Fold:
Amino acid sequence: MKYIYSLNFRVRDYECDLQGIVNNANYQHYTEHTRNEFLRAHGLNFAELHDQGIDTVVARLSMQFKSPLRSGDDFVTRLALRKEGLRYVFMQDIYRLPDEKIVLKAVTDIVCLVNGRLQDCQLLNERFKDYI
Structure:
């Protein structure tokens, strides 16, 4: 897969459950934060998009858990992007560092509501033209 963006993290104690591993819900937080930072890196801001009548929403999310993260682990989220019809499909993988062990494979479909209606978003198409 050709990754176009990555973001490093460190697991915080409060993200772990009684088993000492990261609670499954936190992986969604990691992938969402990475997508948000990817948008920011391309000059996009959720509040400003909303003010322009553009809302990006998750239409579908799939996560495959491969190996656990534990408190203090360093890891990287890597992102690839493609477009399928109206959907922006974010493929996101998480790797533990420094050994690069795969932790998670996630696919998130994002769609745009423009002025409250599901439709193609020319602004995102323009910003992501090099990837889609």
In short: The radius of gyration is 16 Å.
